[in-house]
Structure formats: structure tokens, C-alpha cells
Amino acid sequence: MDLRHMRHFVAVAEELHFGRAARRLNMAQPPVSQSIRRLEDDLGVVLFNRSRRGVELTEAGQIFLVEARRTLMQAELAGKMARRAVSGSTEVRVSFVGAALNNFLPSLIVSFHEAHPDTRLTLEEMISRNQVDRLLAGDLDIAFVLGHGEYSGSFERLVVERSLFVAAVPAHWDIARQESVTLAELARQPFIRPPEKSMRGIPETLAIFHSVGHVPNVVQEVTQTGVMLGLIGAGLGCSVITATCAMRPPPDVRFLPIADHPPHRRWELAMIWNPDHLNPSSAAFVQVTKDYVAARPQLLDLA
């Protein structure tokens, strides 16, 4: 089966229009139609229903689309891995969520550079969902993601940091003068949360409320922790955030303990990687991280 035919099929399946697919592929329409016919002949199934009303996938076409995308991604990944192996790169490509910078990641980077001074780290901040996609595509070696998400079975996973949640409220609110706050009190305030689409699974900031039967009054969704703290400082709402953020408190935000914090809920940061795609430098980074965490058990028990 020719990968070119598969790429043509995916384009038509996503556009559901032969003309638009041809333009997307920078081809004339007849060769695209011929390519799809050839693919259908090779498979012995009809992939598209064609009518005057348009084009739609058959049941076989819907199933084949899932597998075709996976096959094309795997083919692209194989090429990336081969080219990288030939280049002899000593670069380690690392991504992370912003909260990793509060406590864990800066010290880890120092430890790694001390052990491997000639290895170059390329660092990029992004949301957990995007990190997983980039890791699957072979564009990253290591990802530090929110630990409660659902991730590919091909990844290995190590929880590197764990902490309680705290309430983050505007310093000028009356509630900021309290010694602690309950989840019911927070649920009555304007609430800022990360978007559900930014990670796989329900954000822990919502799950912590659900576990005690409350629903926060969400008025704003933001992805970046720094932006969230800026909005809280401006008085636009409050939030629930990892206690590691309180290590560097902004002057206009007050962090409060949560009096009824569910005992089974913790914020977690996890390192994920595909062991089959590590070069010697990225494998060394994984080992340094394992050793770093093993030597600091307090990372997994931050109150």
C-alpha cells in the first residue's frame, strides 16, 4: 500500500470534497480521484459514498481513517528518529507546564548541567495536551505534564512532584483576611480555572470541588498560571492552585489553606517519555531525574 494514496485519502476524508482536497494537496482533481479508486481497489472496500449531495465516508472509510492517520504519523516519526540518530545530536528537547518552574524544574536543570555540561537542553512551556501530541509526533524527548491526565500506553511515567492545593484570592477581598477557606466559600465566589481542553481528563481544580459536592462559579478560563494570578490580583476572581505557587507569592494575591481539602486529592507533576525514542542524551536526562527525585522524597509529600 502506497503512503501517497493514504495521504490522499486522509485529505479527502477531512475535506469531504475532492476539489478542496486536491487544492490542499497541490494536485489536480483527477489524479486524486484516481488515487482513491486505486486505494479502494487495493483494499477491496468502498471508502466513500459519492452522490450529487457530496462525499461521505462509509463505515469502512471511518475505520480506515483512524488507522491511516496512525500509520502516517508513525511513518513520519520513523523518519524523524532515523535522521536524528544519524545527526548524533546531544540535544534534549524538554517541555513543561508552567507550574513546574515553581519548585522542581529549575533545580533539576542545574543538577543535569552539572552532570552533563556538554548536553544542550531545549526547553519549551506548553499545556499538557499539546505536550502529549508533540511527544507522540517525535518532536519532544521528555515532557513534564499534569500528573492526573490520561496518557498513551507507549509512554513511561514518573511522578516527580506532589503537593496540596491552596486557594488563591485577591489580596483586597474580605475573604483574604481569613486564616483558611472552605471549598463551599470558594464556590460562591467568581472562579477562574484552566480550560478542560488544556489537558486530558477533568482538571484537578474541578475534581477537588466535585469530590465534596460543590460546583464553582466559573467566570473565566485561562491556560497559563501567570495569567491566572494576574487576573486574581486584579480582583476578577479566585482559584485553586498548587501550593508550590505560594513559594513565590505575588503582592496582590493571598494564598489560603483549604480547610476541607479532600485527603485523597493532590496536585501532581509527572515526567513522561517514550523509552523507544530516547537518544543517549535524553536517556541520561531521564536517569538524572529519577536519581534527583529518589534523593528528595519531600518532593512527593509537599504540604
From TrEMBL:
Keywords: DNA-binding, Transcription, Transcription regulation. The lineage of its organism: Bacteria, Pseudomonadati, Pseudomonadota, Alphaproteobacteria, Sphingomonadales. Residues 1-58 form the HTH lysR-type domain. PROSITE patterns: HTH_LYSR. This is LysR substrate-binding domain-containing protein. It comes from Novosphingobium bradum. The keyword Transcription regulation applies. The keyword Glycoprotein does not apply. InterPro entries: LysR_HTH_N, LysR_subst-bd, WH-like_DNA-bd_sf, WH_DNA-bd_sf. Belongs to the LysR transcriptional regulatory family.
